[in-house]
């Protein structure tokens, strides 16, 4: 199973789309490591990348939201906080339970579902707002 980036997921914001593509690549890397022998060092590296990158990506998105005075910033930050907590919970479970097939499948599916749903819903709204503000500034 691989997750393909496609034009349906493009927000139109170059920075956000680039980072989303990197998140998809990370997710596919995690799947590849999982399917190709579950090398523990590589799994640890992939999970740590996910944890750190989610924090970085969300911070970058929130900076853009502040810069463009995004009307739904509080809800968006809450979604980000909740997902960071979810990822932290997964990391804790991995530390306690180890890398089981069932837990890795849950993590992969949860991350993929959340990412696609968040992009198509919340991030599209945010990107549209940013684009409209940019257009208004150009007209001034």
Number of domains: 1
The percent range for helix content is over 70%
SSE order, as H and E? HHHH
**Count of distinct strands:** 0
Number of helices: 4
State which percent range the strand residues make up: under 5%
Which features would summarize this protein structure in a list?
140 residues; Four Helix Bundle (Hemerythrin (Met), subunit A); 0% strand
Quick description:
By secondary structure, the protein is mainly α. The protein has helices spanning 14-35, 40-67, 73-97, 101-139.
Description:
- The protein has four helices and no strands.
- It has helices spanning 14-35, 40-67, 73-97, 101-139.
- 81% of the residues lie in helices and 0% in strands.
- With 140 residues, it is mainly α.
- It has one domain: Hemerythrin-like (Four Helix Bundle (Hemerythrin (Met), subunit A)).
- Helix 1 packs antiparallel against helix 2, helix 1 (14-35) runs antiparallel to helix 4 (101-139) and helix 3 runs antiparallel to helix 4 (101-139).
Strand-helix topology:
Layout: H1 14-35, H2 40-67, H3 73-97, H4 101-139
